[in-house]
Write a structure and sequence with these properties.
globular; 8-stranded mixed sheet; alpha/beta; 12 strands
Length: 261
């Protein structure tokens, strides 16, 4: 198959789940969610931990793009067969992406101020023998300790909008500093004027300011593309039509490369 540029930043479109760059990972995550459900293992969505067998299409979209984007980028830089990325997750304790990454052998540190979710994550990780640890360290108020070191990837899915707007540039800057040279930052957030969360990202100008705060480059060299599609994504606010944005940034180290399917 021809080379393709790795995962441009864009807003949600249901058709993306049929795209060859997203579809295989979406299928993997569907199967993993089903296995968790059939085994009686709970996982969290939007901070709610319960027994479930699937996630909604919009969540599957952000998870599949984010996880596949970071893995593809890592294996371009580290082609050794047994290499696994070291990942920092911000705000996703007990969620499907970190459980999946731990299941395939990645080392994952998850930061989440919800003590119940972090405790559940650590207990489940211990039972499974995973290299997954969750911490309630609040990176918004406290710098990362030096012993954490640097990470191959940072991920954060639909968390940014829950941080006060004034603190969003600061947290993105702190997360970006924890990346190794060449590391990838996979980020999603609620987007649009009608997004119901108070501190959601509203427009492309705001996106540019947040990216500038990270000091990172767009993975494909292009700014976020807004498709213009809007959806009733929050069942609590059926009249509010908005979307998700999926963004990939990279810490400078070498010229951009492409990922071959």
């Amino acid at each position: 198959m021809p080379d393709k540029t790795l995962f441009p930043g864009k807003t949600y479109s249901p058709a993306d789940l049929l795209d060859p760059s997203v579809k295989p990972m979406a299928a993997d995550l569907r199967r993993f969610a089903l296995r968790l459900g059939l085994s009686g293992t709970r996982f969290a969505v939007n901070g709610i931990l319960r027994h479930r067998f699937w996630v909604r299409r919009n969540k599957l979209w952000e998870y599949a793009r984010g996880v596949d984007g970071l893995l593809c980028s890592f294996y371009l830089a580290e082609p050794e067969k047994n290499a696994k990325p070291r990942v920092l997750d911000f705000g996703g304790a007990a969620t499907l992406p970190i459980l999946y990454l731990a299941e395939i052998g990645c080392e994952v540190l998850c930061l989440d101020i919800d003590a119940a979710l972090t405790n559940w994550t650590n207990e489940h990780s211990k039972r499974r023998g995973w290299k997954l640890h969750a911490s309630t360290h609040n990176l918004v108020t406290t710098h990362a300790p030096a012993e954490w070191g640097l990470f191959d990837a940072v991920i954060s899915f639909s968390v940014l909008e829950h941080i006060p707007k004034a603190a969003q540039p600061l947290i993105l800057e702190r997360l970006a500093k924890l990346l190794k040279p060449g590391g990838i930052f996979a980020l999603t957030f609620d987007f649009g004027p009608e997004a119901p969360v108070q501190d959601a990202v509203r427009d492309l100008t705001e996106v540019e300011r947040l990216v500038a705060a990270t000091g990172l480059d767009y993975l494909d060299g292009q700014p976020l593309t807004d498709t213009g599609e809007r959806f009733a994504l929050d069942r609590r606010h059926p009249s509010r039509r908005f979307t998700f944005a999926s963004l990939f940034l990279k810490k400078r180290s070498s010229p951009a490369r492409t990922c071959t399917e």
